[in-house]
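chain below, 117 aa
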Amino acid sequence: MNRDGRPATRFARRVLAVVRRIPAGRVATYGDVAALAGRPLAWRAVGNIMRGCTEPGIPCHRVVGAGGRLGGYGDRAVKRGLLAAEGIRVAGDRLQRFAAVRWPGPDRGPERSRPVL
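prediction:
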């Protein structure tokens, strides 16, 4: 973070913009967020950004590991509780029904607006 509280890099700002768009009750992987932020191989950097994020209003708990694992960044108990509050069930360290709660991104999947025919 800069002195003004903003993320230090352009990529970090893009990552946080993507994470802000993940709807409640949905999740995205570190890799999903990296790809949506323009750097598909930067999933580890996304994890580091999530670990250091203290900005209110950023739903970092909605970013999970590949295959629906909770991931290694942040307090797992808190993350599990926040996800549960949004209706996402976690068994052990994995999300149940991961494919059903995985967010496809802002411009893909059923959440985009479709024209009425």
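Residues 10 and 37 are 10 Å apart (CA to CA). The radius of gyration is 14 Å.
thats it, cya
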